[in-house]
Design a protein that fits this description.
Chain A: Keywords: Cell membrane, Copper, Electron transport, Heme, Iron, Membrane, Metal-binding, Respiratory chain, Translocase, Transmembrane, Transmembrane helix, Transport. Chain A: This is Cytochrome c oxidase subunit 1. Chain A: It is a multi-pass membrane protein. Chain A: Belongs to the heme-copper respiratory oxidase family. Chain A: GO terms for molecular function: cytochrome-c oxidase activity; heme binding; metal ion binding. The complex is a heterotrimer of chains A (558), B (253) and C (360). Chain A is mainly alpha-helical. In chain A, 68% of the residues lie in helices and 0% in strands. Chain B has a single domain, classed as Cytochrome c oxidase, subunit III, four-helix bundle (Four Helix Bundle (Hemerythrin (Met), subunit A)), CATH 1.20.120.80. In chain B, 69% of the residues lie in helices and 0% in strands. Chain B is elongated and about 70 Å long. The N and C termini of chain B lie far apart (46 Å). Chain C is α+β, with helices and mostly antiparallel strands. Chain C folds into three domains: 101 residues, Helix Hairpins (Orthogonal Bundle); 110 residues, Sandwich (Immunoglobulin-like); 109 residues, Cytochrome Bc1 Complex, Chain D, domain 2. Chain C is 37% helix and 17% strand. Chain C has a five-stranded mixed sheet with strand order 3-2-1-5-8, covered by helices on one side. In chain C, strands 4-10-9-6-7 form a five-stranded mixed sheet. Chain C has a two-stranded antiparallel ribbon with strand order 11-12. In chain C, a hairpin with a 5-residue loop joins strand 2 and strand 3. The longest helix of chain C is centred in the N-terminal third of the chain and has 33 residues. Chain C is elongated, with a radius of gyration of 27 Å. The chains are: A mainly alpha (558), B mainly alpha (253), C alpha+beta (360). At the A-C interface, helix 4, helix 9, helix 10, helix 11 and helix 12 of A face helix 2, helix 3, strand 7 and strand 9 of C.
Chain lengths: 558, 253, 360
Amino acid sequence: MSATTHHTIVNLPDQSTAELPKRNYLNNEHGLLSWLLTGDHKRIGILYLISITFFFFLGGAFAGLIRLELLTPQPDLVASDTYNKFFTMHGLIMIFLFLVPSVPATIGNFLIPIMIGAKDLAFPKINLLSWYLYLGGALFTLIALVQGGVDTGWTFTTPLSTHYLNTHVITAATGVFIVGFSSIFTGLNFIVTIHRMRAPGMTWFRMPLFVWSNYAASILMVLGTPVLAITIVLVALERTLGIGVFDPTKGGDPLLFQHLFWFYSHPAVYIMILPGMGVISEVISTFSRKRVFGYTAVAFSSVAIALFGFFVWAHHMFIMGVSNYSALVFSLLTMLVAVPSAIKVFNWAFTLQKGSITFETPMLYAFAFIGLFTIGGLTGVFLGSLGMDIHLTETYFIVAHFHYVMVGGMLMAFLAGIHFWWPKMTGRMYPESVSKLSAVVSFIGFNLTFMPQFILGYLGMPRRYHAYPAEYQVLNVLSTAGATVLGVGFLMPLIYLAWSLKYGAIAGNNPWQATGLEWQIQSPPLTENFIEVPIVDHEAYDYEWLEHKTANEVTTVG
Amino acid sequence: MDNAIATHPHEHAEHHEHVALPQHRHHFETEQQQREAGSFGMWLFLLTEIMFFGGMFFAYLLYRNWYNPAFVAASNQLNVKEGAINTVILIASGFFMALGVWAAEVRKQKLLVIFLVLTTIFGFAFLGVKADEYHEKYEKHHIPGASFDIREFVNPPIDAKTGQPDQKPMSPDMAQKTQLFFFLYFAMTGMHAFHMILGLGILFWLIWRANRGEFSAGYVAPIENFGLYWHFVDIVWLFLFPLLYLINRHPLK
Amino acid sequence: MHISPVMWQFLVKWLHSSALFPAEASTIAPWTDALYFFLLAMTVVGLVLVGALIFGFSVMYRKEKSPVATQIEGSTLLEATWTIIPLAIFLVTFVWGALLYFRIYNPPTNAMNIYIVGKQWMWKAEHPGGQHEINALHVPIGRPVQLTMISQDVFHSFSIPDFRVKREVIPGRYSTVWFQATEAGTYHLFCTQYCGTAHSAMIGEITAMSPEDYTKWTQQSTSGMSLAQNGERLYAAMGCNACHNGSAAARGPNLAGVYGSKLQLTNGSQVLVNDAYLRDAILNPSQHITAGYAPIMPTYQGQISEEGLIDLVEFIKNLDSNYRVKQTLVTAESDQAAPSTPQPIAPQQGPGANTGMVKQ
């Protein structure tokens, strides 16, 4: 065990003597086929983790190219068409192949059954199928990329995507369509599992908040994604047959596309952020050794976000000529949906009060999340406010806003979760000091990248611009410099986490002294998770119960 | 991939005996739990299907509202007789499916196979009639695209008996909008037919398994869940038929 | 709302000169900026509050100082506080934002109208006096200007950051935006909705000029024919005057003075005749049959460009009596040779041709 982990990890009753368990889900079966045909939710979670990591770095490479091009005001690195393909691929890959599946399909897949005391998700084969669908969709996206790319922007706006581009729109659309079903099946599996597979005594209000937030996200996946699917089908039909549903010259309404598309794509934002919020609840509670302040409020705020999230889609269309009255209604609802997020932030902050706080890497990422998400959320209020939206929408302000939520929020939460549960997933600790460094580096890099973009946005620099007026250069250079730092911050975990697979200290069952059911079993877990069905007699985050249990164990051992 | 649930129905196994059958999956505590999870999953899946069709229904309602005369005229071109026959056929198919579920529950293997076969036959009959309708649309140049022809709406054919046009002539700009109706007609009924074809594929597989006696020992979840799916497909048609064929129909003269 | 003008000028000028803030060049801009500063203050306060809580608790309750945590369920009072206060602030923002929205999107009645046509990848501006510009727009300061905009192909978005106004330019329907420039100068015009390859080249320059300079500019840049005059030629060339000739026995309704009136349609609805209605009635006549007339007008969809439609709309808008219509009937003979599918009429090159002039 490395010396650093010794210093920073507190309360390690079993770590010095810990050994990797002889039998676990990783070595239960051998060979590639045992992975490719597995029904084990943990293995599928790992398969997802590997796939989305690949696509994260692919999407990140495109982001790097975009920032490189924007170093100078002139369009000098690549041609405009190429640049347009860059940001389209960046958006498509990051949203559909990374953010949407990021936490639910990896950490959620791995942990939700364990957290509620089940042996697996309700439908293991469908779980595997959804990974293959993900791969299928990813394959189509890659084919579109190899064939020469696609330049619709991730929003597939009609009539641009249907009649004015001759790139591989259909291929990319097929990819999105297929990935959509992967997400539907993941959501469906989670909902059924959470409803039907909870262990005895695991009532709804004893569930960890991570499960609640994934439940809320699953509702959005199941109800929202099919609308995206049919919209994509209509776009493809319009493009191939020219039938005119979205074509104004044939009597169609291009705004109908906007309505249908955002009916999914706004809830999709919550699909991306809600599971991340769940991670933060777990991490904050564990490292302050204290139950989450106002458990019920946090749980219900997730559900409230999911419900309100379905009725705010038209706030993407305030300047498109929706009627004044619907603009009013959608703006008001947008303000309401901001409230549950505010509640969560304050509840997390007050969870720290009177705790016993330590600052391991997941906690640092969680702090980064709270700060960045607060900025991202509050700048969302700018955009929900009708008059302000007119000036800010379609500029870099909006780019900065959603990166604060998606990268500053979701990605930080994802990294917090990966570090937090890494010992559980692999049985080994990550190296603590270098990972703290990476958390700090990404925090600084992130702010350097995206803070200037808020200013650029208010100055009026439009998004998706290949060239820009020279007076915006200083801020763009700052942003590109920040992106370099950010890139380093994201590459570091890749390296040291891979390193830790072999050389990391043995973690033991419960290195963090956390209360979740997942921490009461061996790391890495058995294929069937539990030797016998756990009977839950305590609430989530019950540290007194944990203390009592640990004390008892010591007695028995002694 | 739409109905991947239905292609993996054997996961939702259930049986009434105390001896664990091979269909009981290890990660479920009880067979009761397994059965409930299966049908709950199916219901959720049907919910996603509703949202899927919902997008098209929304588009239909919007354009029907905008271009009502075109939608009325185009709707009158649909073959109500065949549509009505198809409705009856589909209800019959659904009826036999329901009987099939009953037969599986009372463990009558022969009856189950017979009912599933009848369900399949009526399913194919529906598709056959549908194909005939599509062919009629092709002959009348009602398929959206290059060959689409609005002449019939602009200059309706003269009725031999009355010497009057059989419907009110439409101006060309409105007549163009009939193409939107027919596109939505093909998209909606086509998507419905696509669900039928998938369902028929699964039916063959279920018949084969039923014939081997797999569903005769109390394990009926695949039949039940497929039944839910098949009834859902029926119900979609029960919305499509009035919305596309009947809603604009003039009273018969 | 009253802000000390000196402080405001100081703040905004200082920010602007450090290239961190756009110029305030329209009457709307200070209003937008006021809301912006309010929201900015909200963000900073919120962030400082959350930061202080986290930092403070982290210091006070770190493991070394607080070895054992005290378990707390929650506090209804506290939670109600941070539900109600943010809600109240957000509602203030909502009302404020809504008021601003109506201010930006409801033009004053005395606004002068300029037409904008967006296409991949240029902006065409058409002044009623017949001045045509590409990727440029000249406007007078101190006078409200309304833009009636339409796209010929895909979605575009017309944005003037220094005026704080922006509106989507949509194919197939007019959208409008208005502003009143306050400072002479040139300002960026951006297309902010992604519209394909040269999206970032779909930019232009807004030139705000003193009223005197503007008058001078309009005189120098005129194409010789106003939009209404172009419209009149089209009206004759496309044969509109055959039915809409203003006589009592005409097959089409009388168009003189129709603009701004309320029409009773055959389908029973009553509509206000505005630019959008006129354009739609030309393209989709059967949905706009005036009560008492037969649905015989053919569609002109695909036969007339957006510029042509603007000319016609402008002609009908300015039609007070049927005198001009009668004139077209008289001159119709001489226009027989005019093509039935008219091209936008080429403007004559004015003397001192401006850089932004159309050269078609």
